[in-house]
Write a structure and sequence with these properties.
homodimer; 357 residues; Rossmann fold; ATP-binding (chains A, B); EC 2.7.7.4 (chains A, B); nucleotidyltransferase (chains A, B); PUA-like_sf (chains A, B); nucleotide-binding (chains A, B)
Amino acid sequence: MREHEYLQCLHFNSLRLPSGGFANMSLPIVLAVDDADKDRIGAAPDVALAGPDGELLAVLRSVEIYPHNKEERIARTWGTTAPGLPYVDEAIAPAGNWLIGGDLEVLQPIKYNDGLDHYRLSPQQLRDEFDKRGADAVFAFQLRNPVHNGHALLMNDTRRRLLEMGFKNPILLLHPLGGFTKADDVPLPVRMEQHSKVLEDGVLDPETTIVSIFPSPMHYAGPTEVQWHAKARINAGANFYIVGRDPAGMGHPTEKRDLYNPDHGKKVLSMAPGLEKLNILPFKVAAYDTVAKKMAFFEPSRSQDFLFISGTKMRTFAKTGENPPDGFMCPGGWKVLVDYYNSLQTEGATAPAAATV
Amino acid sequence: MREHEYLQCLHFNSLRLPSGGFANMSLPIVLAVDDADKDRIGAAPDVALAGPDGELLAVLRSVEIYPHNKEERIARTWGTTAPGLPYVDEAIAPAGNWLIGGDLEVLQPIKYNDGLDHYRLSPQQLRDEFDKRGADAVFAFQLRNPVHNGHALLMNDTRRRLLEMGFKNPILLLHPLGGFTKADDVPLPVRMEQHSKVLEDGVLDPETTIVSIFPSPMHYAGPTEVQWHAKARINAGANFYIVGRDPAGMGHPTEKRDLYNPDHGKKVLSMAPGLEKLNILPFKVAAYDTVAKKMAFFEPSRSQDFLFISGTKMRTFAKTGENPPDGFMCPGGWKVLVDYYNSLQTEGATAPAAATV
């Protein structure tokens, strides 16, 4: 991004289009450089962007370099500058004090060579895929965790509602986030294997589901980030977006409270400039129904029958080898998680430091 | 403001209009209440708003009460949460943890009874006044300091440029800010007296100038606040807005640097949603020309001839009784400042604590 785009992101969460309308853009996509890089670039108009092995990936043309005011970027993006924001610690704090923007000429698609590149479909590839399948509605589900039967219930119920609304062929875009996540989140390769099992086990229908990786880093920036999550999926052809309580939220890093008001994500999303065409599907709360012995939509009238199983609780089950209640997750998917945590413990026995991964 | 308006302010600096367009709104206009007030209000649909002497001023109808997350409000408005922001210390930190919004029914115009109410024209009164004077262009000048001849040069030159552009009767709205300012800024009554002298002395032409008080508190919120400064003047009938370096800016409260990039105010203002009709007039820098012995537009080619006299420097002159260079300010206006600082010193001799005012 150039500075005028960066400023519009920070102040307006949207970019003015030549047509006069607005495109939603709540997170700046910027490249930081340090003083040494800035000096090396000097007055050069164009800068090559290389991969980790030095391979030329893209050229940034007619560059401009402008100050990277980290404090302001963090405050306007997260609504706090408290220490301990994961993406700030990971990506912003260590970054250079300058940002470089320009016209990006991509020479070749980015490859990760991690065995998962076939899951990394571009927005155009996704739109083509939806066309090929004859989708007349596409509903997107953002996730960064293993799929349990509560998620599946929600997705299958959404499909049912879309059919009731008159759509003939609603397609689900199961779009797990593939970039940076918190250290205690389940790593991407394990999640992708778990998602495969969920489709193999028939919990989600492979005929009406497309699984693809959304290669964005997780910011945990709540109402600001959920706009990006929705906008990127619209861009890839989705027209329905499922949003729940406290999307992209987290606990406050230094205070005992949620960082964001859990309702603000949905409210801000529903009012955001440039997202007028988005259809927001409110997320019903699913929990384990101890009477029916399955994940079901929570019924306040018999709240005592329901058990909420948090991500932390789920990870504890998998780590300790304890089985979650029957019907919480399909057996194939659960085994992937148990095997992953077992492998960590084995590694941990020989290399304790790895146990914190 | 209700919560949906408050959130739009914080995230988008603009409010979506029923027509589909956007109205610029970068600062939330909110009323904080504390736990005790919230309890007293209970489930009452309507709340009376009373003045300091208990007189009924307005009714807030169909109220809603929502959390006042001060940290988030401050971070998203100022781009920092560093301690020492004047308006935060003055108005936000001591305020309650709830905000109350609703439909405002104003029963009577607010009076300050400070001898300056005749200067407090509503937007409608200002528009009527411009009509009465037959203005075909209105240019607004935001200020919170005494008017020196550099400001006057700028305003008179703007009028000249507007005449050159073909306007027949450009009118200046001299619109000093009347709400909270920093402790070391010159108080409003003194500034209003100084502005009167500037008009009496003919430095500004009373025939083509309207002086009115802008009753907003100063936030010192840079690029976020300058939008409000401009939007409020458009609302009052102005179509040209003069903007300079680092509008509404200040030094960083804890670091040795400007809080905002001095160019960002103008850039953000020029891109802000809902301000498309605003004509921004860039502020030329005026300084004291030691050769011509008057305030003149700075010429970089002979920079050694120019003397920059900051607000701090000006206040030091007035406090110490030293005269500024000839032609810096009209004698009548300067005398107002000298008398004010003399009066402080007299008070200070009997009551030292007052000397910090």
